[in-house]
């Protein structure tokens, strides 16, 4: 098996002896076998173990086992405990998904902090079969038929040519000790149900199902690449990138021949589920959900009048705190706009405000909109509600929520930052003590 392991690593250019590897170790037969493979073939690696605190004393025994294994192999080990149930509850995720998110975030931190070249995981041929079935059941499309890639960025899976039976045979021959996760024997999880109930019955029809799936996956990978290349090209024609968000023109998407696949390609990769995707698709036709928001762990999608707005949830939830400016010195210190003194009047650009300091009443305030806000847009005689101004400017829902205002100490809006100044603060060529504020977000 060691020869087959080395051959697979070299043939597929997975990693080299010069690379620094991080092995995700659970203590189970698969990862323990992989640790021994790496040790006995001369690769440089460290171990990383996650204690998810889900199995009481058994979780702590798994951790102790992994620490001892690291001592025996004379390699470094990183260990971290997680409150997985709390994280799952806070983020509305299943326990399994919570554990996955937590471990990969931590693995990424370790890779960046300690400059590992690759994260190595112990997925094998049986995992490929299970993953393809799970993807089919979840409706992931053709990309789900690719199973588990041998190499995906910094994640490498060198055991894919081996079956579970191969690994178990190796542990018996080498008398390797490992931990048995009893939860793997329960069929309440979908992967376990497939492993314990479904696949054994399919193996009666095709005893070599792992080999068959491996061959199919190779073909699926090529076909999926063809489809993805097409979808990626079409996406570029539809997607507009903003500073903190992306938008998709609904009218253009409606005209696409394969809009269902395009939506799935875009939204599925961001974590939006099949029901959410269907609701968004229905809106493309009916425009019945304007203002509706859909959430994943990391993203928010807002159905606007003319576009789908996609943004990071953290950015969306991080409400801008009002910023009070007590003096001219404070105004120059704030970081939202750069401030400079002008000796003579000049015509401002869209992202600039020229203001006379004599008209400023401290404290100033920088804030977002409030209901009923109004101002006199530069060049107009009368007042206008900010909501109507936003509508005229054709701002989308995200932009409306994030526009910031410079407000004078008397409550008057001086500047709708990066959009329009107030007529009452118009500067004449004769005015002195002028400041230029430049918005630089």
Explain this structure.
With 441 residues, the chain is of the alpha+beta class. It has 3 domains: 2-219, 3-Layer(aba) Sandwich (Rossmann fold), CATH 3.40.50.620; 242-317, no CATH class; 323-439, Phenylalanyl-trna Synthetase, Chain B, domain 3 (Phenylalanyl-tRNA Synthetase, Chain B, domain 3, 3-Layer(bba) Sandwich). It has helices at 2-11, 29-40, 57-73, 84-91, 95-114, 125-138, 164-174, 190-205, 209-238, 250-255, 259-268, 274-286, 313-317, 328-333, 386-392, 397-402, and strands spanning 20-24, 44-51, 77-81, 118-120, 151-152, 155-156, 239-241, 245-249, 293-295, 299-303, 307-312, 323-325, 337-342, 352-356, 364-368, 374-375, 384-385, 404-407, 413-416, 420-421, 434-439. Helix 4 (84-91) crosses helix 5, helix 6 packs across helix 8 and helix 6 (125-138) packs across helix 9. It starts with a helix and ends with a strand.
List the helices and strands and how they pair.
Layout: H1 2-11, E1 20-24, H2 29-40, E2 44-51, H3 57-73, E3 77-81, H4 84-91, H5 95-114, E4 118-120, H6 125-138, E5 151-152, E6 155-156, H7 164-174, H8 190-205, H9 209-238, E7 239-241, E8 245-249, H10 250-255, H11 259-268, H12 274-286, E9 293-295, E10 299-303, E11 307-312, H13 313-317, E12 323-325, H14 328-333, E13 337-342, E14 352-356, E15 364-368, E16 374-375, E17 384-385, H15 386-392, H16 397-402, E18 404-407, E19 413-416, E20 420-421, E21 434-439
Parallel strand pairs: 1-2, 1-4, 2-3, 4-6
Antiparallel strand pairs: 5-6, 7-8, 8-11, 9-10, 10-11, 12-15, 13-21, 14-21, 15-18, 16-17, 18-19, 19-20
Helix pairs in contact: 4-5, 6-8, 6-9, 9-11
């Amino acid at each position: 098996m060691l020869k087959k392991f080395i051959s697979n690593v070299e043939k597929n250019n997975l990693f080299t002896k010069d690379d620094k590897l991080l092995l995700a170790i659970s203590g189970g037969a698969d990862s323990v076998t992989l640790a021994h493979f790496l040790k006995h073939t001369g690769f440089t690696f460290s171990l990383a173990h996650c204690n998810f605190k889900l199995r009481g004393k058994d979780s702590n025994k798994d951790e102790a086992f992994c620490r001892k294994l690291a001592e025996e192999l004379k390699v470094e080990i990183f260990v971290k405990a997680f409150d997985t149930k709390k994280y799952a509850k806070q983020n509305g995720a299943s326990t399994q998904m919570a554990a996955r998110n937590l471990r990969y975030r931590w693995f990424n931190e370790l890779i960046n902090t300690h400059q590992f070249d690759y994260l190595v995981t112990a997925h094998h041929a049986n995992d490929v079969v299970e993953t393809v079935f799970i993807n089919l059941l979840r409706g992931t499309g053709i990309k789900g038929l690719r199973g588990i890639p041998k190499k995906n960025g910094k994640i490498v899976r060198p055991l894919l040519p081996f079956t579970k039976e191969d690994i178990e045979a190796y542990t018996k021959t080498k008398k390797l000790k490992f931990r048995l996760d009893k939860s793997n024997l329960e069929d309440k999880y979908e992967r376990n149900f497939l492993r314990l109930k479904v696949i054994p019955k399919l193996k009666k029809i095709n005893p070599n199902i792992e080999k068959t799936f491996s061959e199919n996956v190779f073909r699926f990978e090529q076909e999926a690449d063809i489809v993805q290349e097409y979808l990626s090209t079409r996406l570029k024609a539809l997607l507009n990138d903003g500073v903190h968000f992306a938008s998709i023109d609904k009218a253009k998407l409606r005209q696409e021949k394969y809009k269902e696949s395009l939506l799935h390609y875009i939204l599925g990769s961001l974590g939006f589920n099949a029901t959410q995707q269907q609701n968004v698709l229905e809106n493309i036709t009916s425009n019945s959900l304007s203002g509706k928001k859909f959430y994943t762990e990391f993203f928010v999608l807002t159905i606007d009048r003319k576009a789908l707005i996609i943004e990071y949830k953290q950015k969306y939830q991080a409400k801008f705190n009002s910023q009070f400016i007590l003096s001219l010195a404070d105004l120059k210190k704030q970081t939202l706009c750069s401030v400079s003194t002008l000796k003579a009047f000049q015509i401002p650009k869209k992202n600039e405000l020229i203001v006379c300091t004599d008209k400023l009443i401290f404290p100033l305030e920088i804030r977002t909109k409030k209901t009923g806000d109004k101002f006199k847009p530069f060049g107009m005689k009368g007042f206008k509600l900010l909501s109507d101004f936003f509508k005229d400017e054709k701002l989308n829902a995200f932009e409306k929520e994030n526009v910031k205002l410079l407000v004078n100490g008397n409550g008057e809006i001086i500047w709708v930052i990066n959009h329009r100044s107030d007529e009452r603060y118009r500067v004449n060529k004769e005015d002195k003590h002028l400041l230029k504020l430049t918005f630089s977000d």
